[in-house]
Amino acid sequence: LFKPFQAKVGGRLRIATSGAGSLPRYLDEVFNSLGITIVNAYGMTECAPGILSRTIRCNTFGTTGIPFDNTEVQVRRDDGQETATGEKGVVFVRGPQVMSGYYRNPDATNAVLDDVGWLNTGDLAVRSENGEIIIVGRLKDTIVLMSGENVEPEPIEDKMKESLYIDHAVVLGQDQKQLSAIVAVNEEELMRLAVELKLSPSEVVIEGTGSIEHEGIYQHLMKEVKSLISKEQGFRRFEFITKILPVKNDFSIGRELTQTLKVKRQYIQEKYKGLISRLHHDTKKKKKR
């Protein structure tokens, strides 16, 4: 079953590395089932760029491992104190690889780097019982619902991407009662679904907006999302996605995506602001009925 894929990576590949950010757990599981061990590492340009890495002997799925040699890592609360095991906080790092500052930008430097060399990465994480770090999101990406609940969108988005139909996802909900999401739909799977539903391409995508609004397709995608973002999958009720905005996947690097294929939230929200406004308006109307 896996031989064609193994052949494409040379046939003898047994170990590979994944860098930049946290690797979604399902990708760990997929590659492990192929007999390929993935060693995930985490870092940023300001740290040249390594901070954490899993190792062959300590390679827990879902984590980004332990600090590099000669590197100190702390996970801190808002008051600057270190968090307890399993408690979420911001990752701070100190070591020889940490930058001395941004070129000719002392204000930006002072915002992230203190006078004893600790760098605020802006990433949110928890420390496991065996000392490994689990990255859970970005501080600036945290969504605060109207109820006051804080939601980290990245784990929800990664889970949604386990669907064959969803290439990318952006969770929405700042100052809203519930979460919704933009989902960029895989074109090949979308057309396959359209054939099953006996639809023509013109019935699927609204030209000029990229919006996918056919009710049958919407319900199928919504069913996928609900099965993935559920109590059974470990999500809390306020993390459930109540409505989606399916769009054709024309996302590209430099526009909707970064060089490491992470979504550019602000760009995407600006691009679809009209559709998002309608999405929130429709949600409110349905609640009133």
Description:
This protein is an alpha+beta fold. The protein folds into 2 domains: 3-140, ANL, N-terminal domain (Rossmann fold, 3-Layer(aba) Sandwich), CATH 3.40.50; 142-288, GMP Synthetase, Chain A, domain 3 (2-Layer Sandwich), CATH 3.30.300.30. 28% of the residues lie in helices and 25% in strands. The protein contains 9 helices and 15 strands. The strands form 5 sheets. Strands 1-2-3-4 form a 4-stranded mixed sheet, with helices on one face. A 4-stranded antiparallel sheet has the order 5-6-7-8. The chain has a 3-stranded mixed sheet with strand order 11-12-15, sandwiched between helices. The relative contact order is 0.09. The model is unreliable at 285-289 (pLDDT under 50).
Instruction: Report the portion of residues in β strands.
Output: 25-35%
How far apart the termini lie comes to 51 Å
Shape: globular
Give the low-pLDDT segments: 285-289
**What's the number of extended β-strand segments?**
15
Number of helical regions: 9
Content-based structural category: alpha+beta
Helix content: 25-40%
The CATH class designation of the largest domain is Alpha Beta
Major β-sheet, in short? 4 strands, mixed
Indicate the mean pLDDT. 92
Concise overview:
The protein is α+β, with helices and mostly antiparallel strands and 289 residues long.
Question: What attributes does this structure have?
Answer:
289 residues, alpha+beta, Rossmann fold, 2 domains, 4-stranded mixed β-sheet, 4-stranded antiparallel β-sheet, disordered C terminus
